[in-house]
Amino acid sequence: MPVDAALADLVARIGTFHVTDRAMKRAQQTMEEALARDVVDDRLRAAYFEAARRYFEGFNGEARGHLRDVDRRLEHVNQVHFNLTAERGVAVKRIEATQAVLDALREADR
């Protein structure tokens, strides 16, 4: 069965990932070899798609979980930043108020 360009492009795209999963690595290598020999059949194509789907669905789930964690941590950092900015504003006002009293004391003491 002649290899279609879409399949070859997909295999090349997947080949750019650093895959550590043995089953996906094996499926990738098998498909690359079959493409090079132009001997891709329906069984091989289906097995490759299943391996890729299983791998990338898991990878996608992990990435989404990581993104949720990062977003949660960013929300926390933003809240801490907001709180510290407000706290800083209070400290600046206290300094201004106490400095005004100290300046008035110095002035009255002359």
Structure summary:
The chain has 110 residues and is an all-alpha fold.
Structure characterization notes:
- Helices cover 86% and strands 0% of the residues.
- It has helices at 5-15, 22-37, 42-109.
- The model has no long low-confidence stretch (mean pLDDT 95).
- With 110 residues, the chain is mainly alpha-helical.
Compute the separation of the termini in Å. 102 Å
Number of strands: 0
Give the % helix: over 70%
Strand fraction: under 5%
Instruction: Give the count of helical stretches.
Output: 3
Low-confidence stretches: none
Rounded to the nearest angstrom, the radius of gyration is 31 Å
Q: Let me know the largest β-sheet.
A: none
The run of helices and strands is HHH
**Mean of the pLDDT scores?**
95
Assign the structural class, choosing from mainly alpha, mainly beta, alpha/beta, alpha+beta, or little secondary structure.
Answer: mainly alpha
Shape: rod-shaped
Set out the fold topology:
Blueprint: H1 5-15, H2 22-37, H3 42-109
Helix pairs in contact: 1-2, 2-3
Task: Sum up the structure in keywords.
mainly alpha; 3 helices; 86% helix
